[in-house]
Every structure is written in C-alpha cells, then in structure tokens.
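WARN no homologs supplied; continuing
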Amino acid sequence: MFKKLFELYGAQSGLLYKTVLLKILEMIFLGSAFGVIYLTIRDLLAGTLSQQLAIYYVLAFLLCLVLAYTMDTIQKYALNLKEYLILAQERIKLGDHIRRLPMGFFNKKSAGELSHTLTESVRSIEFLPRIFGKSVGILVLAALFLVVLIIIDWRMTIAMFIAMPVAFYMLFKVMNMAETELLKRQDIQGRVSDAVVEYASGIKEVKTFGQSATSLKKYQQAITDFKEQNLKIEKMAIPKLVVYQLAVDIGFILVMILGAYLLIVRGDLSLALYLLFLMAALRLYLSFQELAGDTVIIKHGNAGLTRVNNIYENEPLLETTADRKIAHFDIEFNNVNFAYEQEQVLKNINFSAPANTITALIGPSGSGKTTITNLIARMWDIQEGIIKIGGINIKDVQTAELLGNISIVFQDIYLFNDTILNNIKMGKQDATKEEVIIAAQKANCHQFIIKFTDEYETMVGEGGGKLSGGEKQRISIARAFLKDAPVILLDEATANMDPENELITQNAINELVRDKTVIMISHKLSTIKAADQILVLDQGEIVQRGTHDQLIQATGIYSDYWGRREKAKGWKIAN
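OK structure emitted
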C-alpha cells in the first residue's frame, strides 16, 4: 500500500520520509522524557535529589517535551500543509486525466462514482502520510523501549512484550482484511450519491406522476446496501481488534502483577524501576490503542488509492506532439470501423463532406449516427480506417486544435450552475460581454434573457433547471455562435420542442450553419431536405446516400420515412 502512496507522491515523496523522520524524533524525545522522570524518582526515593539536580531534571524534561512538540508541530503545520497542496494538485491531475479519457470510460462510470473518487477517495488518502509516520514512530518507540528496558530488567521487559506477537498478528489480520470489501463499500457509496442526484434532478417528474415512494426505492436500497456493507466490514474487523486489545491489556496487567511481586515479595526491584515500567507500559499501550484505530483509516486510504489507480489504468487518447494546423474543413471517412467493447457499431464507413456543405445523417435509433459525430470530435479512437479533416488524420492533430475548430450542439443540453453570461462564454472564454450579447441575439435568446431581473447575470441553476428546454437549447446555440467554429455538429438540436420553440431554434440554426461544414442528425426530414447530401444509416452501415430528390425516387429507408411523414400531415384529432 505505501508503495502506491510513494508512487502517488512521485517527485514529492521526500515529504513522506520527512514525516516519518519527524515522528521518529518525536517518539525518541518522548521516550527520553520518561528516562528523566525515572532518574528524578530514583534520586528522590534515594534522598540524593538536590535542588540543583532537580532543576537540571526539570529543564531536561521540559527540553524533551519542547523538542517532541516542535517535531509534532513541524509535521502537522508545515509538512501536512504541503501534503494537502500535493493532494489538491492530485485532484486536478486526476480530473485532467479523466478529461482526456475516451467517452467509453464514462459509459462505465457514473457521475456519482467519479464524484466519490475525486472527493472521498482522495480525502481518505490525505490521512495516510500522518498515519504512516505515526505508525512508524510508534514502532520505533516500542523498539526503543525494548532495547533500553531489557538492559534494565529483562523479566519486566518480557512481561511487557510477551503478548505483543499475538497483538500484532491480529493487527496484521485486520490490515489484510479483504480489500475487495472496502472497495465494494466505496462503490456502494457512489451508488448512494447517484441515487440522491437522480432523485433530486427528477423531483418534478416524481411529483407529477406520484411516484415518490417508487422513486425512493433505489435510494433506500443503496442506503440499505451501504449499511449492510459497513456492518459486514465491522463484523470482520471487530473480533480481531478485540483480541488485539486484550493482548495489549494483558501485557499491562502482567507488568503490574510481576512488578508488584518483584518489589514486595522478592525485593529485587526498586520502586523507581517499578514506576518506570508502569509509565513506559502505559505510554506504549496507549500508542498501541491508537494504532488499532489507525488500521481502519489505513484500510480505507488503501481502498481510495486503489480506486484512484484504477482510473489511471485507463489509457487516455494518444496526443500527438506535432503542432499541425487545420487549414481546410472538408471531412473524410475512409473505411472506418468502430466497436465499443465487443459491440460492432460502425462497419466500413466511407463518405466525404466537402467544406461549407451540409451532410445529414438519418436512420433508426442505434444505427450509428451519433457515433459518427462523436468520432469526428475524437471522443473515441477508431479501430480501423482513417478520419480526416482538411486532409489531415485527426489523430495527427492536437486535441485543442481539433476541438477548437468544432462546435457541437447536442440534443440534451447541460448548463453549469452559473450565470447565463458564463454559460455562453463556454464557447469563448475571453469573449467580451458585447460579443456574448451579439451571439445571444443571433441565437434568438437575447429577448428572453433581458426579461430576467439580473439579465445575463441570472443564475441558471444546476443543469440549467431554471430555464425551459427551448431556452437551454438556444443558449447552447449562442455558445456555438460565439465560438464561430468552421465545423458544426448538430445532434437532434430541435428534438422534443414545441412548434414555436422549434421554429425559433431552427431559424437560429439556419444562421449558425451558413458557410460552415455541417454534419447534422435529425429525425425530422423537413430540417434536412435542403442538405447537400444525405447519408442513410442502418445497423452501422451507410445503406443509401444522395440528395433529397435522388433518395425520394429510390426504394429504401429514406423514401419510406418520407412517405410516412407525408401521410401524417393529413392526420386529425377526432371529435
């Protein structure tokens, strides 16, 4: 486990060595303080403690305490602060690593699970350096007492340490308790977070359909599972910790009994030595009690380390070091095959989308339309074939350059819990407010924004919950206007809208895509009728291609879709 910790600290691993060294010095000074106490009691009982000698003992005792306190203070307030900063940087590093992972990773990891890893798992690691240093310090203190005390009186020392093998065996058993159980606990805690977010986000639907009891079941089940898992872990650890505590207590009792026997019955142990062993045993056993509690923290920290390392084991998309710029914005797919895990999604896709043209993708759900747009933005890497923009393989272009030339308008819009202004500025971070307003006007959302009391400084709520679906969609389009990228990817941008919002949004989109290279997905054939080319997909293959006029004359999926739409125009609601 501590090997993982040193790997996590990397170039800063020297802090861990300093933490251990300071704890060792602290324990040595504390042990020395006990030696001063023994000398004071010995001379006091022998009647040889002079005033001057007493002053020396007091000063020596205070010096030991001050030095021990200084070591502890440096460790707590200097090194710990640096350790917190390192782990803060680790959170940023982990977040950056996650940012560069392919989208397949996020299909396997829920938001709650990732949030738990970035917060709770890393937080559990924060305690490890201190616990590590303290544990080593306690073991050094035990070794120091063993070496010194066995020279003074081997009988009392054996009594003090005779039960330690049993105690440490039990501690070892706790330390080696099934890590999978602790990892499972953290997984369940992530499920609890997911359930809470889902319940809070869907509260409107829950209330509308009267499903409060049903919707709580997932949350209640996660809480129940979390409780049961915690109980299971406690049941595994508590018996071993009880035996550990008994072994520690037995050692202290043996010191008391044997010392009393040697002092009173045999008379070959001085009262000063008896008191020394009692104080040393008490100090040591109190430390061992702390060590028992620390094992649980260590195990949770180890589980946190494992979860963090599991994320790092996912390889990010390879980033080229070449600084190539995209000068032209035609898009080509050459013999592209793509599978997500074992499922083949795209099969031998070939097409060319010339610059400043609109290419529309249609087809049944699951036919691969959204996958094509995601691959253009390189959210995944393909297994076979080449995708080019401007004649350059997108793998040979840095991600910042590639995405800097692409704007995406999704069907499901996510707005951050921030102002409308900052949400639009996601398209261009250094934009002025005037530029934002111009983009909003082009997207037909300026009118509703200025109706808010705070206008562009209005907070949109989590996920944009204070805005309607149409309003969120138009803000998303304003982002794209502000970015003004030469390539536009539209994924069902007007789906699920009422006719008024659809018309407003479609007008904004028509303005957005002018003189751009556009890949558009839509099930509404009226929005793609004027496309320069239409690709019809089915089961991951392009089964038809051409213009609207060409495809409407051919037998196939497109003419069937269009025929059903034309028939639907005449539908009326019966009285």
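The two ends are 73 Å apart (CA to CA).
OK
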